[in-house]
Automatic annotation (TrEMBL):
Organism whose genome encodes this protein: Pseudooceanicola batsensis (strain ATCC BAA-863 / DSM 15984 / KCTC 12145 / HTCC2597) (Oceanicola batsensis)
MF (Gene Ontology): sequence-specific DNA binding
GO biological process terms held by the UniProt record: regulation of DNA-templated transcription; response to amino acid
The entry's keywords: DNA-binding, Transcription, Transcription regulation
GO cellular component terms, semicolon-separated: cytosol
Source superkingdom: Bacteria
SUPFAM superfamilies, sorted: Dimeric alpha+beta barrel (SSF54909), Winged helix' DNA-binding domain (SSF46785)
Domain HTH asnC-type: 5-66
Protein name: Transcriptional Regulator, AsnC family protein
Length: 153
């Protein structure tokens, strides 16, 4: 897919990864093109699935979600029924911002955003009441040093 993108596509995507609110005219000006080609390229990149969706990125701290935990999960269960139950439990919890299945000693890592440690404990207690988990380690992020959704085009 990336091999079908040219330099103008990359410039447009770099611009959109930073901010989707400028008009097509402003984006075209910033990437050195005109409106119609930029609009057509954006539409084609949406159609091809390169641009999945456009969202507003909210400030978690301002909204009171000041605690970010990275949760490392080890399980002794690996059957399909357990996995389906576990994945559904994650999907049902808005606190889980990211979930990844890993290779290595840890089976899953979650990024969980909550107001405070008490809210994390409520999340944790609810999760383990639904799903059998062998070991859970929660790591509290003391400071977010870098966070981006931008890909290195």
């Amino acid at each position: 897919m990336a091999d079908r993108m040219d330099e103008l596509d990359r410039k447009i995507l770099l611009q959109l990864q930073q901010d989707t609110t400028p008009s097509i005219e402003e984006i075209a000006r910033s990437v050195g093109s005109s409106k119609t080609p930029v609009w057509n390229r954006i539409r084609k990149m949406r159609d091809r699935g390169i641009i999945k969706r456009e969202v507003a990125i909210l400030d978690a701290d301002v909204l009171g979600f000041e605690a970010c935990f990275f949760v490392l999960i080890r399980t002794s269960e690996h059957d399909a029924e357990w996995q389906n139950t576990f994945l559904q439990a994650l999907r049902d919890r808005a606190e889980v911002q990211e979930a990844h299945r890993l290779a290595g000693d840890i089976d899953y890592v979650l990024k969980v955003r909550v107001p405070n440690a008490r809210a994390y404990d409520t999340f944790y207690q609810a999760l383990i009441s639904e799903v059998k988990i062998h070991n859970v380690t929660a790591l509290l992020s003391m400071e977010e040093i870098k966070s981006t959704t931008a890909l290195p085009l």
